[in-house]
Amino acid sequence: MRTLLLTLVCATSLQAVEALQLEPVARIQSDRIDECSGIVKSAFRDDVFWVHNDSGDAARIYAIDGEGKPILPGWMEHAGDYQGILVGDAVNIDWEDIARDDRGNLLIGACGNNFNMRRDLAIYVVPEPAPRAASQTRVLRKLPFRYPDQNEFPPLNRNFDCEAIFWADGRVYLLTKHRSDTDTKLYRMEEQVEGHVQDLSYIGRYPIGGSVTGADISPDERMLAILCYNSIHVFERALPGENWLEGPARWLPLAQVEDRWQYEALCFDGEELLVTNEQRDIFRIGLDQLLPLETDEAKEKPGSEPTKGDGN
Fold it and tell me: How do strand 97-100 and strand 105-110 relate by DSSP bridges?
């Protein structure tokens, strides 16, 4: 009953603001990137963004600039020849998001789980390649994981899909996409070691009011941006180690425009959020466009138990 009440409180406040119709400012200019599912800004190069496709593509990543143009190796003459950068020892099974750690690596989330039946969920750790020189890279580590509250495959409540990962406090965090409600759950991977399937740590739950499709953390790790098909939320925390979902929130509702609504990825770029959809459009939203969201009551405390029934 409490979870339902909190969701209704949050939903009431969300409905009071008119949704914004986003207009593309650019387009990804490679036909090979035909289902862009994740994006992150390079840690080393100012106008380089790493993207990837969902399932159906080879295990590869692509470098583009802020206008969506592929960044080619110097020896490649034509953009039409660009094949992306192959990731050795990896398999693209439902790659859903990409992030970066504080050690110069990219993190690829092989964690899409539409039917909640997968037992091979993992994060690939890949050294960030030089996009103007490399045509391939390799996996440094593969980090298998499982949800501590999933006991059946599939469960009755299918709340164990994940399309949003980020790195903060020296660890990988994951946000779930739900099919039995419009909440999201925050988990943390405590170790970055190979060799065993580790249980994630459950951090908390939030009634976000939509299906979570992407996330990113600000460079100072103070702000967490979360993308849904119907909204963008930005949460702030005061101190390292605190749960962002317990802090002040801002948000922007997004209009569901035909052939443009499937927003799948976002990342920070200075004082803006860069958003892409599966149709290869690129959008930019200023952080000053987001509106305060009063949801102090519509949150669970960090470390609280997952809602009963999620794993059954």
Answer: antiparallel
